[in-house]
């Protein structure tokens, strides 16, 4: 079991931002990554539809003998992680709303959160909000259309800038000094976000914290690999293979295989 791979699932390529951090914290672990880009985006789907789609992907990764699965998708974490933890025996890691570090860092006591509608409506966000947002103004903004632009490789396009200006400028005008990226696709947009928001705004990407937590959970369950070797990376997608390959090449530098699959 120690040498079994970690599984990573996302609705698309956004979870590559998490994979990049996992490689820093767990350099010897092999990984299977599944991008359900053929059904992306999940953010505006009904809970039942998102759960149905995600379950197919989880069961695919389980057949590959993954010892732990990282749900590198805020939407699926919000609507499905409780079900998966109840239904399956292996550990699941989800994307936690990063309101706590934002609350600790903000100077103006004004935080912006860019996420999907399902993330805002999920239990985790509501509980985190109640726990950490006391005395702080939190401005939430659904990022309609951003995931699609990232999936298409247009994260640095004029269209992406126009949408981000529409979403961010009203928050910035209200004094937001800390911005939480509540979708794993949004780190792909960091360069444009930084150009719009300026250096005075702190951008919080929870991927590093999720990777660190994954290492702790593997250690807790005695699942860390015991070998020091060159790990294997296998990628699967339900979408366009060439497009996903381009994102992999841009985001991470490692030898890998990628297969197009149907679920």
List the helices and strands and how they pair.
Elements: E1 6-10, H1 16-25, E2 31-35, H2 47-63, E3 68-71, H3 74-87, E4 92-93, H4 99-105, E5 110-115, H5 117-121, H6 123-132, E6 137-142, H7 146-151, H8 158-173, E7 178-182, H9 190-197, E8 202-204, H10 207-220, E9 233-237, H11 241-251, E10 257-260
Parallel strand pairs: 1-2, 1-3, 2-9, 3-4, 5-6, 5-7, 7-8, 9-10
Helix pairs in contact: 1-10, 2-3, 8-9
Sum this structure up briefly.
By secondary structure, the chain is α/β, with parallel strands linked by helices. The chain has helices at residues 16-25, 47-63, 74-87, 99-105, 117-121, 123-132, 146-151, 158-173, 190-197, 207-220, 241-251, and strands spanning 6-10, 31-35, 68-71, 92-93, 110-115, 137-142, 178-182, 202-204, 233-237, 257-260. It contains 11 helices and 10 strands.
Structure notes:
The protein is of the alpha/beta class and 263 residues long. It has two domains: 143 residues, Rossmann fold (3-Layer(aba) Sandwich); 107 residues, Rossmann fold (3-Layer(aba) Sandwich), CATH 3.40.50.1860. It has a six-stranded parallel beta sheet with strand order 4-3-1-2-9-10, with helices on both faces. It has a four-stranded parallel beta sheet with strand order 6-5-7-8, sandwiched between helices. The longest helix is centred in the first third of the chain and has 17 residues. It is globular, with a radius of gyration of 18 Å. It starts with 5 loop residues before the first strand and ends with a strand.
């Amino acid at each position: 079991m120690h040498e079994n791979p970690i599984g990573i699932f996302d609705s698309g390529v956004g979870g590559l931002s998490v994979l990049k951090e996992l490689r820093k914290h767990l350099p010897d672990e092999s990984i299977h990554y599944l991008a359900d880009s053929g059904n992306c985006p999940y953010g505006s789907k009904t809970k039942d539809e998102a759960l149905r789609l995600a379950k197919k992907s989880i069961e695919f990764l389980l057949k590959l003998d993954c010892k732990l699965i990282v749900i590198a998708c805020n939407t699926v974490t919000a609507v499905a992680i409780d079900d998966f933890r109840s239904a399956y025996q292996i550990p699941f890691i989800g994307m936690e709303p990063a309101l706590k570090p934002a609350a600790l860092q903000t100077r103006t006591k004004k935080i912006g959160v860019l996420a999907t509608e399902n993330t805002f409506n999920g239990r985790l966000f509501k509980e985190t909000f109640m726990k950490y947002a006391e005395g702080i103004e939190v401005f939430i903004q659904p990022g309609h259309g951003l995931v699609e632009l990232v999936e298409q490789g247009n994260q640095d396009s004029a269209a992406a800038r126009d949408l981000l200006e529409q979403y961010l400028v009203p928050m910035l005008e209200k004094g937001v000094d800390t911005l939480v990226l509540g979708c794993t696709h949004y780190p792909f947009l960091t360069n444009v976000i930084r150009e719009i928001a300026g250096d005075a705004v702190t951008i919080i990407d929870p991927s590093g914290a999720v990777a660190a937590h994954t290492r702790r959970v593997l250690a807790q369950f005695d699942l860390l690999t015991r070998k020091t070797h060159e790990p294997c990376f296998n990628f699967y997608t339900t979408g366009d293979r060439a497009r996903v390959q381009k994102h992999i090449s841009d985001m991470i530098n490692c030898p890998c295989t990628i297969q197009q699959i149907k679920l």
